[in-house]
Specification:
The protein is mainly alpha-helical. The protein has a single domain (7-128), classed as Rossmann fold. It has helices spanning 7-10, 13-24, 33-42, 52-75, 91-95, 108-117; strands at residues 80-84, 101-106, 124-128. A three-stranded parallel sheet has the order 1-2-3, covered by helices on one side. β1 (80-84), α5 (91-95) and β2 form a beta-alpha-beta unit. α2 (13-24) packs across α3 and α2 (13-24) packs across α4 (52-75). The radius of gyration is 15 Å and the shape is globular.
Length: 136
């Protein structure tokens, strides 16, 4: 898979690499097989992206946000979620209850890359736009 990312969008590789390496650990605290598949398809060395403190920060943030979203979805099963700055985030797959509507918003080149990495999914819409502008 060939992806072209700008400097800002390249930072999306940090949590992606960390989620992939966490998933491959025998005692993984969460699983994100999509992260593993994308990293393998990109064939990149993740060492520079997966430093210990960053690793633990991404893991903690992933667990906390997943848990909080699951609580919100539990209390409002038909909720709509807008994932701003989606990058290569696969949170939808970890929290989906079969009813939610999900919007992934990111800059145009990030969404173009995301569309290469993620299949079309029912109830998920990818939007290329800038959160600071009203057009999206």
């Amino acid at each position: 898979m060939e992806l072209k990312l700008g400097d800002v969008q390249t930072t999306a590789l940090i949590p992606l690499a960390i989620k992939a390496s966490e998933t491959m650990r025998p005692d993984a605290r969460f699983k994100d097989q999509m992260a593993v598949d994308i990293i393998k398809a990109l064939d990149i060395d993740t060492a520079k992206y997966d430093r210990f403190l960053s690793h633990e920060g991404v893991v903690a943030r992933t667990i906390m946000l997943d848990r909080q979203l699951k609580e919100i979805i539990s209390s409002a099963p038909d909720t709509v979620i807008v994932n701003i700055g989606a990058g290569f985030d696969n949170r939808f797959a970890r929290v989906d209850n079969g009813k939610i509507r999900w919007f992934d918003l990111d800059l145009p080149d990030s969404i173009a890359a995301r569309k290469k990495a993620f299949p079309e999914r029912d109830r998920v819409t990818m939007i290329a736009g800038n959160v600071l502008e009203n057009a999206w």
